[in-house]
Here is the input.
Amino acid sequence: MNMELSERIKQLSIEYNSRIIELYQELHANPELSFQEYGTAARVSRFLDKLGIPYEQGIAETGVIGIIQGGKPGPLIAIRAELDALPVYEKTNLEFASRDEGVMHACGHDLHMANLLGAAMILNDLRDDIYGGVLLVFQPAEELLPGGALDIIQSEFFRDNKPDFMMALHVLPELEAGKVGFRPGPYMASGDELYIKVKGKGGHAALRNTLIDPILIASQIVIELQKINQQGVEQNIPTVLSIGKFIAQGATNIIPDEVNLEGTFRTMNEEWRYMVHELIRSISGRIANEMGGECEVEVVGGYPSVVNNVKLTEMAASLAATFLGNDKVIELPLRMTTDDFAYYSQIIPSVYFRVGVGFPNLPEGRLHSGTFVPNEDALENSVALTAWLAMSILAQKANE
Here is the structure.
């Protein structure tokens, strides 16, 4: 891609910036929970209508997919943005704060949508220079299992227009606005939910010889399961197994009949992932049996790992450095959070990257927090970069 086009993209991003920020603020003020994003989808559709970009709506119920057909032959690239917000009470005191108490765009999906619609404005203006085409994927329900990605993938429209490549970005408050990050290969973890019910024989806490104490059994299970984390370290496989909920409805002098444990298991190796599922079941069952109790284990499979295509991600990082400058592009560390973009990355060469939204000289915000405020100044660069990456990747792949 020539530098003249690069400057044109940057100029268009500047021209459209106030409109994009206004859109971001409108989306932030009107959040909707997963699988309920009807108003958000309507806003996206109206915006695409104004741009004259054709789209399909009602995909996965609330999903919207637009398509920009380029003026030159080439492959198809898709860019994903999420529609849903979180069940979080907003505490930002922003003028455009959420109008729905208890629902907030606390993960930056409002900025992701504004970014993609801003990039769509630029790509639509420059469509005669695009090789192939661009799918604009506005996906519901990233935040709630089973997620909306699988529904998008399984939709007739997506199957009929399956992209050759795929991109997504996510805000990163730890990184200053204006900077971006990439990581080839495995980047984010799989995430499974654990539910363990331990059954014993409760009664008076003073009469221990008559009891089978499920609290002791559950405590031993929690301790033994933590050894799985060390096994992951020994195998050089990123592994996190945490129990976050321990419910024992007893009292100072009452031992309950059962205890319920809930937790999460995350890793970046699919073979190890399913081995650990069996380890969790066998360890929990063995301990319960040895101590005279019973145990029921349910492992609810969540999203797989996000794995970036190495060549595509290295290409994107190099293109970003050319566009923004070498000092604006970092290599990301591994991250144990999850994203259902993983499903796309399993079947399509993909790149999932991060956009800094931090403020200079201010403490970083926290994703999923009621006080999270991204630096909206990041949009000018991110919109331009998204358009630049899409056009550049298509051009390079069309001419390989």
